[in-house]
Amino acid sequence: MRKFKTESKKLLDLMINSIYTNREIFLRELISNASDAVDKLYFRSLTDSDVQLSADELAIDVAFDKDARTITVSDSGIGMNKDELEKNLGTIAHSGSLDFKTENAEGEQASAVDIIGQFGVGFYSAFMVAKKVVVVSKRYGEDEACSWTSDGVEGYTIADAERENHGTDVILYLKDDADEDSYSEFLSEWKLRELIKKYSNYVRYPIRMEVSKTRTLPKPEDAGDDYTPQHEHYTEIETINSMVPIWKRKKSEVTDEEYNEFYKSDFHDFVDPLRTMSVHAEGMLTYDALLFIPGRQPYDLFSPDYKKGLALYSSNVLIMEKCEDLLPDYFGFVRGVVASEDLTLNISRETLQHNTQLRAIAKKVEKKIKSELADMRDKDRDAYEGFFKNFGRNLKFGIYSTYGQAASTLSDLLLFYSAKQEKLVTLDEYVDAMLADQEAIYYAAGNSVERLAKLPVVQSVLDRGFDVLLCAEDVDELCLQSMFQYKEKEFKNVSGGNLGLETEDEKAAAEAAAKDNEALFAAMKDALGEKVTKVSVSTRLTTAEAAPACITAEGPVSLEMEKLFAGMPVPEGGEAPRASRVLEVNAANPVFEVLKAAQEAEDADKVKLYADVLYNQALLVEGMPLEDPVAFANEIAQLMK
């Protein structure tokens, strides 16, 4: 036995136990090596007229023997002689593929060199599942075959062997099952098919395997009417992989049906995608991308288990099933594939060595998605509104979670319901329809468009001719506050602070009413205590037909935000932020005269009763919870006596 050097033993142990994190990739690595071997022979046929190959010679075969507990990966590639087995397999981290790629980096046929292997360590991933590995190889053009055998611990042996044709067989003798580790799972047709389809589906050469099938036998001529169809089981060699990636085909050569079937098959959806984007980029960084906007919202989109990302391929081999760095969170619903030969992979091929390449691709992908969404918004509004119903929340949360930094990308994609136009509008459409003297974008936040439309504060703004955006999702107000403004127009909550919409006459009338009834407002404030910060005359509700009172909020925490914070966990001993509530009384409503009469009669109990009723009614209108519903019910009953 030829011993591994001490340093080599340490490196081998490191590779088997540390470099690779997922043991199922052993098959990907062995198939990639086989593909490289076939590539080398194919390249030689392009440069050497003495090498004559037929198309059916270039293939990779995978087989398993459940009784012998072996998996065999065979190729019809260039093969290796004894010296090459010693050099390539006996010297850990030596890559014959990298040598080949370097030697043929120039010349007329350089573009045909697309070797996957670079580090010379992928082969040793076999020892994650195998207790012994035997390699039998015969170099093209030579008569003798040879074998390399190792247990991956002490060393290896090289001996003469028998192989009819050129190429290489890698035979894995699987480890015995243990309590926590089952290796027998790889000794099944469905598992090997699954791994081939998952990692090596687009290797350019056929990956063949003997598969089991069932067929119906012909009905015998003498069979009666009660004949039961008979079936037989048989096996045949089948090509498992697709070979030609759909993203490398010209868009004009692929039908919508083919794109849809690829999407549904690879991304496990039962609904056609809403939009398909095909990108082919050449230059400093060459890559292909095939992106899909789903036609429905995944059931787990907002669950902690949802993982965004695009499938990342290099040399037609799956490197990462979901590369999160290729998508910003707000476009996390997009599915698809990115493939590039220019990526600098790390030694395990499971992650990237340098993020600059990935960032460059991600930036282009983000730009493409934004462009596609903007095109849908402008040219197919119905489809876009359907998209926004499914994924608009992602865009809004994207602005909030980036503290407004993503607003430049996302703000023109947002839709909100217009109370005035009674339909969804973009912020551009709202601004374009603004009155000449309108200084802000007005919105109301709540949990229902229908309820928001009936709010007295919304009606008061509409009565002045201004539109109001009705924001019925909990993230809406957080999104708008993160943007602060749009096209130099500040966002203002119609239930917040002073909107400044009152006329000089209305302002003067409110000031006069407040001055004349200071004692009344003070008594109402005392009756309500800490529930409100003050009671004032409303400049929003100024007509007899308007509501008798409303609740507004001063400061940064709005009424809707208070409801949102109330549903969140708070630290022990702390409390959720509350809005500074203001009870605004409509001095033009007949109820105000009743209040004044109670105050003039010095009936403090009645003033308190009326203050409580108006306050609780205003809370109900705003969709706020009552602190004591039983007390409120009793107060209503008392008024009815």
TrEMBL record:
Membrane found in the keyword field: no
Binding residues annotated for ATP, in chain numbering: 29, 33, 75, 80, 88, 95-96, 118-123, 168, 349
Sample GO molecular function, one term: ATP-dependent protein folding chaperone
Region feature A, mapped onto this chain: 1-349
SMART domains in the record: HATPase_c (SM00387)
The organism's place on the tree of life at top rank: Bacteria
A GO cellular-component term linked to this record: cytoplasm
A Pfam family recorded for this sequence: HSP90
Histidine kinase/HSP90-like ATPase domain span: 22-178
Record's subcellular location: Cytoplasm
Keyword presence, Ribonucleoprotein: no
Entry-linked InterPro entries: HATPase_C_sf (IPR036890), HATPase_dom (IPR003594), Heat_shock_protein_90_CS (IPR019805), HSP90_C (IPR037196), Hsp90_fam (IPR001404), Hsp90_N (IPR020575), Ribosomal_Su5_D2-typ_SF (IPR020568)
Region C, residue ranges: 564-641
TM region(s), chain numbering: none
Keywords: ATP-binding, Chaperone, Cytoplasm, Nucleotide-binding, Stress response
Its job: Molecular chaperone. Has ATPase activity.
Family that this chain belongs to: Belongs to the heat shock protein 90 family.
NCBIfam families, per the entry: PRK05218.1
Subunit structure: Homodimer.
Name listed for the protein in its UniProt record: Chaperone protein HtpG
Biological source species: Slackia heliotrinireducens (strain ATCC 29202 / DSM 20476 / NCTC 11029 / RHS 1) (Peptococcus heliotrinreducens)
